[in-house]
Amino acid sequence: MRWLSVGGVRVPRVSSTFSNHDRLGAWKARWGINRMNYLVPAGLYAVGEPGPDAPVIVTANYKMTYDLVRRELAGRSVWLLVLETFGINVWCAAGKGTFGTDELVRRIGKSALLKVVSHRRLILPILGGPGVSAHEVKRRTGFSIAYATLRASDLPEYLDNGEVTTAAMRQLTFNWYERLVLIPVEMVLVLKPVSLVGAAVYLAALLLGGGSAAATALGAYLGAVCTGIAVAPLLLPVLPGKSFAVKGAFAGLAFSAALFGLAGGAGWSLPVTLASFLALPAVSAFYTLNFTGCTTYTSRSGVRKEMRLGIPVMGSALVAALVLVLAGRLF
Amino acid sequence: MKGFRYLEGVATLELDPALCIGCGRCLEVCPHQVFEMEGERARLADRDACMECGACALNCPVAALKVDAGVGCATGLINEWFRERNLRGFGGGGCCG
Lengths: 331, 97
Known about the structure:
The structure holds two protein chains of two kinds. Chain A has helices at 20-30, 63-73, 90-96, 101-110, 113-116, 134-141, 155-160, 176-180, 183-189, 191-209, 211-234, 244-262, 270-290, 300-330, and strands at residues 3-6, 9-12, 43-47, 56-60, 78-83, 121-124, 144-147. By secondary structure, chain A is α/β, with parallel strands linked by helices. Chain A folds into two domains: 3-172, Rossmann fold; 178-330, no CATH class. The longest helix of chain A has 31 residues, at 300-330. The mean pLDDT of chain A is 94. A two-stranded antiparallel sheet of chain B has the order 1-4. In chain B, strands 2-3 form a two-stranded antiparallel ribbon. In chain B, a hairpin with a 2-residue loop joins strand 2 (35-38) and strand 3 (41-44). The longest helix of chain B has 11 residues, at 74-84. Chain B is globular and about 50 Å long. The interface between A and B is large, with 53 and 46 residues.
């Protein structure tokens, strides 16, 4: 670790290289491996050779966030104030309050920023706004806050054009790649409940219809889960409706139809066919509804409304499917 | 957000124009261009685009904005529901930590 001494304060210097080790770490975090412990120590860092006039950019201590920011700032001379967000990204940490007013005030004090820089201005990510009260920070520390950009990738342009935020820097995007990278960890997070339910589905189908039915039922369940977690989020803008549950249900219906066609649905009894078209879309709808947690445009009130209306419908569909299968077996 | 709209008529965001001092902070922190300036005051231009993140209310120096902000994902709401009923350990982990 190299150090920089400014105003009697020793500040560690950020490495400007982005190694394969960093790439591997980011990849692992995307797959939920060591994700909750992927962090850098909070504090003040120097990028390049910043002086007392250099801008101060504030970020979170999730290593993926820190890496993104330092990569964008490579070749410049700026200060990087990393807040203790316990390895959580800016947006989620702001929601929890760890990327927040109190931590920012504390970190300004601990890092002796007042001695390091001569100005009193901090540059924050716009998505840090839900946790930080700018006027409160100003009152408590004297530092004024500029909410600069949504994306780290816009920081160079922001710094180059005299620290002015353009309309494009305020415009959120959620393109297919931005959605794709969120899917692995979503799958890893549901591995346990899905394995348990999958085993139950397999056993139940084994008892009711034998080995081949059990394999089909398990495949159908896992397919519906994947449709809800992966396919619907990828197809999000083209699926009908605004409700995530409805989008998921449509994707689930399409999956049910595909399964019917490919897995010999013509040979299924009517109750089993009906049950599959009821239960599978319900499963997909639930998991797509859960994807609201990964977006930056769904509101709490909206999700609450979807759940109030959607969960009873999903539950009823599952119960109806179960009753159909049992009734079909008995009569 | 371009290409994405969520449910309409659900957002709890409220702006009291009588309190607004026109500082423009809400325009700066809102990631969904919900506000616009009308003369010396902010105005709700697109309430349905609000995702209730709470940044505007927290950054309004005169408390002219109110919104029921908080975790907006299904897992988070389920966990909250369990927590309110002291049923810890049911909802599981998940979300962003």
